[in-house]
Design a protein that fits this description.
This protein has 378 residues and is of the alpha/beta class. The protein contains 16 helices and eight strands.
């Protein structure tokens, strides 16, 4: 049997036990046959045009591509052609031992390529968390297990947790790593119960070297989910794996969490990440501008950081400024332009309201009742 045929047969067999998960395309898979395989694409032959049209459109197309990519361990695009069986000899290439690239591994593990230690700005507000994350990468499963990071929106919890995963996978691609938001864990568990595939769900999560759960507070109040997560937590840790959790509050303040989970969440290192100070916001701006190829000097960055306190809003403000720079055909974002930008924003915000403005707004919701009053006031 050829490598290509073997790969396709193994894919079909992998879905047989889980076929209820893919009710739209699974019954039709045996009417397909592999024609050619390249590094990022597989060409599948269909017996007729109707089958090709159905599988190329909508949900069947997305599900088939996702299932095949999951099986391959890398992102694989699908091209369907009308090709009767045995009329076209399968083509194979030596590079198809399916050794995934880093990009493929990021996709498979739920990591995002933009998060790394190199582009994480450090200051007094997050230096403890940064040092703890670095320590975890050097002692996976043995140092600070679990590592629990908490703080408000946009303080860098997700960035730091993902940076650990990226660092590990760059140094050892054999490590089993998975990043998921708390609501994704919940949704996958519900789907596994519905599809009677809980065994596959447990195999996915309980054999990991590193499990990162973002916004773990979302499992609060969900008894069945917490029970499953409790056993997942124990299984990963007992086998020498690492757990990293992020939340908006410390374990003691998360509502609806069972005591046994709260105890485990608090059993490692819990670190509070504060909102970024002025120096950190300035550094974040300079890092973002460099990543996006936007020219800005440090004084302009300071002026923006002085006006914008939310770290996520910093990037939005930077992009807004850049768009105006492009429109006005300026060479770069300078201090004069930044000051003008914020002056205009303040003028808009402090526009004085008059009684007529209030009446018009109210009347826009019930014009029949307010018309007389509006006319009188005018």
């Amino acid at each position: 049997m050829s490598i290509l045929s073997s790969f396709w047969d193994q894919f079909i067999k992998s879905l047989e036990k889980d076929q209820k998960r893919y009710p739209l395309f699974f019954p039709l898979l045996k009417q397909l046959h592999p024609v050619e395989l390249t590094e990022h694409k597989i060409i599948l032959g269909c017996q007729n045009l109707g089958l090709k049209f159905y599988l190329s459109s909508g949900k069947p197309s997305y599900e088939l591509e996702d299932a095949l990519s999951e099986h391959a361990g890398k992102r694989i695009k699908i091209e369907l052609v009308v090709a009767p069986l045995n009329k076209k000899k399968p083509k194979e290439t030596p590079l198809l031992n399916f050794k995934p690239t880093l990009g493929d591994l990021f996709y498979k593990t739920g990591l995002h390529v933009k998060y790394s230690f190199e582009n994480f700005a450090v200051s007094s507000t997050n230096q403890v968390a940064y040092a703890a994350a670095q320590a975890v990468t050097n002692g996976l499963g043995h140092t600070y297990n679990p590592l629990f990071l908490y703080g408000g929106v946009g303080v860098g919890k997700t960035h730091l947790a993902q940076a650990v995963g990226r660092n590990i996978i760059e140094h050892d691609q054999e490590k089993k790593i998975f990043f998921c938001p708390g609501d994704q864990f919940t949704n996958e568990m519900v789907e596994s119960i519905r599809d009677k595939s809980t065994a596959a769900f447990r195999r996915k999560y309980r054999k990991l070297n590193l499990l990162i759960v973002d916004d773990v507070q979302f499992i609060g109040g969900k008894e069945r989910v917490q029970e499953e997560f409790f056993h997942t937590f124990n299984s990963v840790v007992s086998s020498g794996g690492q757990i990293i959790l992020t939340a908006d509050k410390p374990p003691s303040q998360i509502k609806g969490i069972e005591d046994r989970l709260r105890s485990r969440f608090s059993g490692g290192l819990t670190v509070d990440i504060q909102s970024p100070d002025f120096e950190l916001r300035t550094a974040i701006l300079l890092i973002k501008s460099r990543e996006k190829g936007i020219e800005i000097d440090i004084e302009s960055a300071k002026a923006i950081a002085d006006q914008v306190s939310d770290s996520r809003a910093l990037e939005g403000t930077l992009l807004s400024l850049y768009s105006w720079v492009v429109l006005e055909k300026r060479e770069k974002i300078d201090l004069e332009f930044v000051n003008g930008f914020f002056s205009k924003k303040k003028e808009t915000l402090i526009k004085k309201l008059v009684p007529q403005d209030v009446i018009k707004t109210v009347c826009s919701f019930s014009p029949s009742n307010c018309h007389a009053r509006l006319t009188k006031s005018s």
